[in-house]
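Subject: design request, 153 residues
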């Protein structure tokens, strides 16, 4: 899986950029059980604390996705990442995020999986024959172009 994040407006340290840890995609995957936690969102804060300890132990340093409107960040699905705090609450961080799954990708959610009982997600595959056949909703397309400053007047 690969994540793609397109900025629909300038993103800087004040409006909550993407925070990520270069090289973290090479770490082994950790489940909730690896830290003695039951799977589920109720334990997510505890899971995050363990991941933060791992980041410190591995001496990983954060970087921030401060990018301009129209620029794109692409990352490996296992890269540790998230949204940095929004320092200026009057600002927005409009973006388009899409996850692409490669053929034969077995995507599961560690947060809700336990032991050998994996919770799989099934992405919707778009047949190659459909490309060019379907058009995005016109209003959505126009709004994105307007945000990027590319709309025709």
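Subject: RE: design request

Done. Sequence follows.
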């Amino acid at each position: 899986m690969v994540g793609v994040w397109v900025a629909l407006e300038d993103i800087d340290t004040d409006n909550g950029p993407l925070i990520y840890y270069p090289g973290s995609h090479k770490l082994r995957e950790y489940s909730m059980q690896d830290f003695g936690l039951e799977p589920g969102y109720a334990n997510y804060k505890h899971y995050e604390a363990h991941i933060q300890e791992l980041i410190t132990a591995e001496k990983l340093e954060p970087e921030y996705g401060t990018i301009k409107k129209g620029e794109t960040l692409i990352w490996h699905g296992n890269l540790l990442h998230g949204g940095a705090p929004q320092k200026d609450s009057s600002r927005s961080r409009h973006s388009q995020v899409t996850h692409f799954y490669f053929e034969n990708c077995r995507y599961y959610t560690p947060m809700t999986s336990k032991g050998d009982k994996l919770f799989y997600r099934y992405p919707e595959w778009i047949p190659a024959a459909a490309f060019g056949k379907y058009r995005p909703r016109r209003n959505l397309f126009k709004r994105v172009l307007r945000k990027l400053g590319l709309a025709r007047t």
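Helices lie at 44-57, 138-147.
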